[in-house]
Structures are given as structure tokens and as C-alpha cells.
Amino acid sequence: MNISKLKQNPQTFARLFGIAPDKFDELLIKAKPIWIKNEARRLRRRRKIRKGSGRLYALTFDEMIAMLLLYARSYVTHEFLAALFNVDDSRVCRYFARTRPAVESVFDLPTGKIDLSQEEIEQLIVDATEQKTERRRKGSGYSGKKKAQTVKTQLVVNKKGDIRHVSEPVPGSVHDKKLYDKSKVKLPDNAKGDLAYLGTNIRIPIKSSKLHPLNQKQIDRNKRFSRKRIVIEHVLAQLKSFRILADRFRGSLEHYHQYFLIVCGLRNLARA
User: Fold this and answer.
1) Percentage above 70 pLDDT, the chain
2) Most exposed: 57, 150, 173, 272, by fewest CB within 10 Å?
């Protein structure tokens, strides 16, 4: 694949990789030193063969990163990528294993405690998303909503739509409130969520029932609330434009969180 030629058409490049050519170059500049450091650490380990021996990389660093982004964007098979980049399909997985940590480190999205300004804290919005996956003994769970095995992740965004926190994934059988309680992030009372967060400290819409329908004033309040909370729904829709977070996840769930963080980081980078 000729990366330089693709950069001459920014619109096509962004459709293929999820970010514009200038953002791709910015990602390479930040990720390459981390990758070099990781490679040096890997080669310092005890080895059966001499350092420097073995097969050389068939792809440049730029091509390996491009292949990783194309995989996240289109979620095609490793065999397809191998044919596209003219490498053996057994190398694709190995390249991903060595480039994922570097790309994730560039974005460094928090998964634990977050440090935000007071203004940003007052405008946080939270929601959870779940994705169908292959059945796994550990990591997946049956979702009554999706009627399938799923994995669930919680996002926190600000009013501008920037992703500020990503939780660790949990089985789809875990309720949103329980996921919120298990996550290490503590949100203020004026943070916004949907009715799944009933019982937490954050603000939610007014809940109706068969015996207690909403009056017009309450309906209007819920509409105003939804206009402010719709930001996170747009964020989730943009994340799912990366097919690796939209299609049934086929890979090992050990790598799911890493891919999720990479896609969130790409989305933030594209908007920066």
C-alpha cells in the first residue's frame, strides 16, 4: 500500500484510516519513540537467538501503524490485510502486538481517577455502550437487551464531546449502575446520565410509569435534558464508525480494552 500517494487525497485517507494525513503524521511522530523504546526493552530479554538475528520487519513503521488503523476502521480479516500489505498473514498479529502499546500510550486516556478542571467537572456526561462478541469463558456475558453475548464499557465526555474517561470492560450481563459503581471514576451530582443510572448521585431524566405518567412540564424538562445529553450519543455513533467497535468482536477479549482506547484516542485526535 502506497501511504504517500494516499496522503495526496485527504478525504480518502480519512475514510480509510479515521484521521486526516496531518494527524496521522502527528501520531507517527509521537508513537515512534515509544515503539523504539519498547523494542529495545523487548530485545534485552533473554533470547534463544543472538540479538539482531531473525527475520527483519517486512513493513516500515508507517505501514505497520497504517495497517493497525485500517484494521480498526474496517475490521477486515488478517488474511485480507496480509494480501493488501504483501506480508505473510502470521506476521499481521505480531505487528499488531508490537504497535498497539505504542499507539495507546500516545493517547493515554484515563481509566482510573481523573483530574479535571472545575468548569469541566460541572459539564460531564456519562453513558455505557455494549458490543456483541463471541462467547468467552471470561469477559463476555449474556445481555438481555442485545439478546447476545456482549461486553460493556462506560464513557465519560465533556460538553464539547471530548472523551475524558474510559472504564475497564465488563461482561454485558452487568447493569450500567453496577458498572458505574465498579468504575474508579466518581462524578459530581450535576453530571448527566440516562435512566440506567437510577440510584446513583448523578442527574437523570424524570422517570414515568404506568400509574404516574409525565405531565407537560416534566416532558419539556426531559427534552431539555436530552438536548444536553445527546452529545455522548453522537460520540458513541462516531466511535462505531470504526467497525472494530460496531461489528461482532471476533478477537481475544484480552485486547478489547486496548483497541477501545485506541479508537477513542483516534477520535479525540481527529477533533483536536
Assistant:
1) 92
2) 272
Helix (H, G, I), strand (E, B) or coil at 151: strand
Beta strands of the chain (E only): which ranges? Answer: 125-132, 141-143, 148-157, 163-166, 170-171
Specify whether the backbone of 264 is left (phi greater than 0), alpha (psi in -120 to 50) or beta. alpha
Q: What is the C-alpha to C-alpha distance for residues 179 and 169, in angstroms, rounded to an integer?
A: 9
- Name the DSSP letter for residue 87: S
> 149-203: per-residue pLDDT in tens?
999 999 999 888 899 899 999 999 999 999 999 887 888 888 899 999 998 889 9
What's the predicted TM-score (pTM) here?
0.90
pLDDT band at 97 (very low <50, low <70, confident <90, very high): very high
Residue type present at position 140: S
CB neighbour list of residue 258: distance below 8 Å, 6 or more residues apart: 100, 101, 104
Q: Are 65 and 97 in contact (CB under 8 A)?
A: no
Quote the CA–CA distance of 109 and 116 in Å, as a whole number. Answer: 13
Residue 48's pLDDT is what? 66
Which residue type occupies 82? A
DSSP letters, 190-226, are T-B--GGGTTSSSB-PPPP-SSS---HHHHHHHHHHH
Residue type present at position 226: S
Largest CA distance in the chain: 76
Given this model, what pLDDT does residue 254 score? 92
Could you tell me which residues are beta bridge partners of residue 161? none
C-alpha span between 127 and 267 (Å, rounded): 17
